[in-house]
Amino acid sequence: MLTLVQVECFVAVAEEGHFGRAAERLSMSQPPLSRHIQALEREIGAQLIDRSHRAIRMTAAGSAFLSEARDLLRGAESAARIARRTARGVQGSLDLGFTSAVGRTALPWVLRRLRDGLPDVTPTLHEMVTTRQIDALGNGTLDLGMVRHTPFTTTGLSFRSFLTDTLVIAAPRQWGLGDGGGPVELSALDGRDLVMYSPDMSQYFHDMLSAIFIARGVAPRYAQYVVQIHTMLTLVDAGLGAALVPASTAVWSGPNTSIVQAPELEEFPIESSLVWRTGSANPVLARVLDALA
């Protein structure tokens, strides 16, 4: 096979028009330069340089090959540059997971930080609930997740606190909660229909709300169990019950929904984390974590 050294030698001779100057340019003597050119011609199966004259002349085959040879050298340098940048983590791809709620509050900021600080890193976005992100990180299909804080066994994963939020009450407007313009007690939900988080797919929220209600002696009726917060707010707007949602997601509420503060809920902040595989082989990950610090 032809080699890049052979191609580089040919281009130098073609551009310098002289074996001696080409050898000097390449910091080699003329004999090995000539051998590289001859080996290239044998490999190609065509004479590239006409040596029958005092001045170097390209044959028709040599002139045709010259443009492609330059492209080969540029392509090789580009490939090497990309490899170096990828090894340093400043170029490459990142599979990024996020929950709908975390995505609403944090994703635009994250994408701006990556665009400004790591413009050659391409994120591929995956909207997933926390449990699925944990699974995807474990099997290597996700590089970085933005999740709710999780009490699960997470051997092989690293976490970093990311942001916090607070809970508010989303209630059907006809209930009249908060009509006075002020906050309400959580006991206002006692015995009333509540759209609850799935115990399997939204375990963080389910367990948190269950603990809050027990601690405050409130016993709502669980009308529906759902996974996504935007679905929960849709059901609230349809009048199926109230819900406790992150304050940052209140903008998703419909015209038939009231968003009401409950001071007791400030004692239960919603924690979010960045999570990744400990010892990940993707060099981009460390750069991204630095950019999001």
Automatic annotation (TrEMBL):
Entry-linked Pfam families: HTH_1, LysR_substrate
Q: Which InterPro entries match?
A: LysR_HTH_N, LysR_subst-bd, WH-like_DNA-bd_sf, WH_DNA-bd_sf
Q: Which UniProt keywords apply?
A: DNA-binding, Transcription, Transcription regulation
Keyword Transport carried by entry: no
- Domain HTH lysR-type, first and last residues per copy: 2-59
Entry keyword Transcription: yes
- Gene3D superfamilies associated with the record: Periplasmic binding protein-like II, Winged helix-like DNA-binding domain superfamily/Winged helix DNA-binding domain
Task: Report the sequence similarity comment from the record.
Answer: Belongs to the LysR transcriptional regulatory family.
The protein in question is named: LysR family transcriptional regulator
Could you read off the lineage of the organism from its UniProt record? Bacteria, Bacillati, Actinomycetota, Actinomycetes, Micrococcales
